[in-house]
Amino acid sequence: MPKEVASQPTPQNEEAWPEQPEEPGENAKYRRRTKSGKRTLMAFVEDIYLPHMRLRKRSWTVDARLATRFIYPTFGNREIRNIRAIEVERWLDRLTNKLAPSSCNRVLAVFKTICSLAVRQGIVPASASPCSGVFSLKLQTPRERYLSPDEAVRLMTILEQSERQEAQALRLLLLTGARKSEILKARWENVHLDLHMISVPISKSGKTRYIFLSDAARDILAGLKSRGKSPWLFPGRSSRKPISDIFAYWKEVRDKLNLADVRIHDLRHTFASFLVNAGHTLYEAQKMLGHADPRTTMRYAHLGQDALVTAAETVSKLLKSGTQAQTPSPTEAQA
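Below the sequence we write its predicted structure tokens.
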């Protein structure tokens, strides 16, 4: 009598999945939650993906927020193995009605990372990954906007006339090239006026970085009313938290100056452009801006090209004069 062959577990035959010994940690929790129900994407994210990323990614809470807001409403109660790539593509297309293409791509990147982990965990075969073959949206060339020296002077003038802390924060952004979050979330314990710097304990690059201060920037910090009264340079309504945003004040200022197309982040671009146009190297600009990847700073390379072309012409003239000095005149050649 032939032996009975046990059916092999497959994604299509989930009832045949064998009972597995209890595993420690999140995998066990996921198995218990889904043993009598569906192996949903939401269960996988909550029980496996987020605990996994918490140990590996500083911004794991952003993944949680994006998944909850944009992925769960459509796919949260679906089994991962039953989500098709064409559904993900259509979902991504609909998402463009709510978000900019760059933001849509960030959400898609989180979805792809979730699916990749599901494949590695054996939850879904690689051939059935929902995001397999789904491409990111095409983005337009990044918009570049720099303040001219005249625009920058007019901006600084109106900011200097205000005592509002939003104005002082904007002055610091233009004088340091720092990111908005680095200034608004700065604490007095990280300000070192004697060393001309502010330390950013955990910057965007994941490492401690330093914002270098000119005398003008130091004077602004020394005059802030929060000094000695709050842990934050720019406290919010609650002294326990920093100011959350300065956009409303920024819009008011830029409208007065007819600079409606200028964003707060463009102050950082302007700082970099002034550096490069003044003859400072891209390496110096990289360090001042806190770019971990030198390629990010290359966007400013064209700004200093006039000085570089002039330098190239200097070498060309030297070589040209040298070759002319060694080339015999027609009379000398006949002799």
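The beta strands are 191-192, 197-200, 209-212.
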